[in-house]
Design a protein that fits this description.
Number of helices: 6
Order of helices and strands: HHHHHH
Structural class: mainly alpha
Largest sheet: none
Length: 167
């Protein structure tokens, strides 16, 4: 896939990376706004009504948490397997793919919260969606986070810091 290969410079890499990141932020946010506008009384409902569906509701929240944790572990595991002898382009492509795995995990957690919100119309799902959205904002792509991943050599770190040309 050419989207993950052939970066001419670091700004082009961050343009692609940010495109992916903001897609995974914007899509669930759009659905949240739609659901909220459809039923503005969401936050007025009790945060978790204990009824016959209590365990189903809690399982949606637990599934979302597990999805985020699995995505974190998979992403970190993928970055640990990056070999030092790869070209910088290949390392950037692997970093972007690991980030994509992380974003998909958080995206699916957000979708589960939106599903719970749409089906049950309870404030707990709106609140947990907002928490997931906050956590997504903490993993946005930045140069320090990229350098901290530990897959780049000192020369490559200099290229990243100076927005240099990728070789």
């Amino acid at each position: 896939m050419n989207f993950f290969k052939k970066f001419k410079d670091i700004p082009q890499f961050f343009d692609r990376h940010n495109l992916v990141f903001y897609f995974f932020v914007a899509v669930p946010l759009g659905f949240f706004v739609f659901i909220y506008l459809k039923n503005k009384a969401i936050l007025e409902n009790n945060f978790l009504i204990e009824d016959g569906l209590y365990y189903y509701k809690m399982s949606l929240i637990i599934i979302a948490l597990v999805e985020m944790l699995v995505a974190e572990f998979m992403s970190k595991g993928m970055l640990k397997r990056v070999r030092a002898d790869l070209s910088m382009n290949d390392k950037l492509a692997r970093y972007l793919m690991a980030s994509l795995i992380r974003y998909v995990g958080y995206f699916s957690a957000a979708v589960f919260m939106l599903l719970g919100l749409f089906v049950f119309m309870e404030g707990i799902f709106a609140a947990t969606y907002i928490v997931v959205l906050f956590l997504i904002s903490l993993i946005r792509p930045t140069k320090p986070r990229m350098i901290k991943s530990g897959i780049f050599s000192k020369e490559e770190i200099q290229v990243i810091e100076n927005d240099g040309v990728v070789k």
